[in-house]
Structures
1.
Amino acid sequence: KFPHLLVSYSGEKEQTVNSPVSHAGGKKHTESQDKLGLSQETGVNFGKVAVSFTAELFVKLHNLSQVQTPFKVDRIPGMNHMNTVFRCMQTWGVVPPMSVMEVPITYCPHTVDITSIDYFRVTSVGNVSHSIIKCVGTAIGPCVDLSTYCINFHQHDIGSSGNKSFDIINDSSVEAVYQFELDCEESVFKFSIVSGFIKPFSR
């Protein structure tokens, strides 16, 4: 019997690497006939991942034959792979007979609000079987809001001063950077803190 590999992704096992921690929202995709003429396509959806975080998911290589099956993983020829955000961490190996091997794929987005798609090809020895892995992920950034958009100081005597406070809210898993700007240096309104950082999910 010829060596034969099948690729699957259940979305059940997920792991993140590097710090801070990010959680990839993988979902199961059904296998369909690949438009490029190869045998099958398996989808891996990383969901939303914060910029500069690295999410890692695993696909499974099933060896359905009675012999060990060497394989290699590469990118689809002829496609633009400049500045790719997806990487396959194991590009070759051997799957023992009638067993399953997990292969990690990472996603590290660089630009906010960009959905990236890339493809990997899994080929068994002798080009007997081919499978396509389609990777999809969306990059997210800070989500900053203010507790109020209007501050009323009411009346004050000349020479006196008043203080009011408000919150800057970061409702995302990414650290936010903020800076306030005034219309002119002669303004009667001043900020005690003009710039800084806001930790994820804090104010």
2.
Amino acid sequence: TVRVKPQAIQGKKDTRHSQALDSQQNPIQCKDMVKIIDGPFAAKKNEEEKQGEIKHVYRSWVFVYSRKHVENSGMLVCKARHLLLIGARAGSTRNELPTMNRLGMSSPNPFQSPRHNGSATPAHSSSQSVSGYSVGGKTPNHVGM
């Protein structure tokens, strides 16, 4: 048995936005439809190509649900490079939005502003206090300001 403190228990890890790259370097993520073109689940002679919906992505491994696959309730685990995104154009990237740099404008960056001085107080300010540590009381040997 493993003993875990209640503080160490965390919620479920959010992997909905995890991505991998398919055989044509298209980004694939959960709920995408893919076709299996290589690997152990690829179509053999006189067989229809398997395709399905991505349920989970873990690094380069992709969990695909295919209705045509009878074993393991239709779940397949494939390498991402063995898949091809259905409906992807050759050499295109999805969710491509025009950026301000393409329009000839620069993005507003506060660190590039000439009025930005780095921090609110300079490093050698007289308002900073001297640090020390307590020698008695409830918290001995604790560093403070």
3.
Amino acid sequence: MVTKQKIGKVQFYLGIILLIITIIGSIVLFKSMLSSYVDGVSSETTTWTDASKILGEGSPENEMIVGILLSDVITQGLIVRSFGYIFGASALILLIMSVMLILQGLANQSKR
């Protein structure tokens, strides 16, 4: 027969598992997002340097290419920032839910 204590144990352990998975997943996902952003910006600045060497400083073509590359870097930054807000809110909700599940499991374990 299923009692509240057994349900409480299951809730408690599921809450701990959800908490651990959320923390590890958040770290891995955030690290991979930042490293991909850094790789993208470094490739943009490499192209920027190559264009400046070929076309020469101050030429209209160089200024146009630099403007395009700068807008790409700004767009990448805005995407990373918006992803960070959305991801941070989702991770916070999951953390709160896992703590609530742990507390509910402890409450059910204490009932007879």
4.
Amino acid sequence: MDTNTRQDGASGTDAATPTEHPGSSRREFLGQSGRVAAGVGVAALVGNLGQYALSYGAGGPPIKIGILHSLSGTMAISEVSLRDVVLMAVEEINKAGGVMGRQVEAKVVDPASNWDLFAEKAKQLLLEDKVSVVFGCWTSVSRKSVLPVFEKNNGLLFYPVQYEGEECSRNVFYTGAAVNQQAAP
């Protein structure tokens, strides 16, 4: 068998390369990632609400979610787009009728790239704004600063990026890859 011919008979040079995905772009990837994260978050939220969600059903109060990404300071360049993706997902979910007939309401806060302020804003979202779930943090240090707040108050955080691993909390969905998932053999 020729070394450039696959078992199915196609030439190795005819195969699509990983960069040949029509219509794929960073913007589409971020948008899709945000919709998936929001969908998973809302699904988890609905499961978390249990009888409360069922008792209200259609037309009940909105489901409040928090967005904890820096909109100012050094990390804003990376985090503003994450806020935008979550807001886009909320808009799409609401246009489709919401979750069990209830609209999703996003509360956006700006921790201003200040790690101590991340913990303060997380506490505000959970205790004052009474959100059911938070999407946020871009760095490990911001995640580590809010972790005690989420664990103490039994809050739920969706952390959107890769991380160093060796941390597991029932209050955090780590949606990014850990180190062992990034290394190639």
